[in-house]
Write a structure and sequence with these properties.
143 residues, mainly alpha, two-stranded parallel ribbon
Length: 143
């Protein structure tokens, strides 16, 4: 599960990479689910108070690239359900749809080319969030 409560974006990213490494000896197929905000949950409680943000789509792109390169024999999938919605995993309004489509395409093809060439101004913001998020103790740097 990418980005459970109380994890910074960077911690969540590294946790999934580590989990894939550990699971790789037991399975040939790994599905990575992205957290979203559901009614009546702890995540919704935190989200309503500005203490949780769903994961960036850039994080799952990075995870898929890193893990597929390290474990080319694995089938690694993710379906970013609710991508682009306020309560779902997202980047900015301009690129969330395109990036989510690329994630789905990669999940079907296992071809890293599907994840190449994705660029948007918000990617630089995500990179800064990875650095600053840890010093905010898991509270989102940005909404």
């Amino acid at each position: 599960m990418l980005k459970p409560p109380f994890f910074s974006e960077k911690q969540a990213l590294e946790d999934i990479v580590t989990s894939v490494k550990e699971a790789s000896v037991y399975s040939s197929v790994i599905s990575i689910n992205l957290c979203n905000v559901q009614k009546g949950t702890l995540i919704e409680y935190l989200w309503e108070r500005g203490e949780y943000r769903p994961p960036w789509l850039w994080s799952i792109v990075e995870i898929l690239k890193r893990t597929k390169r390290e474990f080319p024999h694995l089938t690694i999938t993710s379906d970013p359900v609710g991508a682009g919605a306020k309560r779902g995993p997202r980047n900015c309004k301009e690129c969330s749809g395109q990036v989510a489509d690329a994630i789905r395409a990669f999940s079907m093809s296992q071809n890293l080319q599907d994840l190449e060439g994705l660029e948007c101004d918000c990617k630089h913001l995500w990179e800064k969030v990875l650095v600053l998020d840890d010093v905010s103790f898991g509270s989102p740097v940005l909404e």
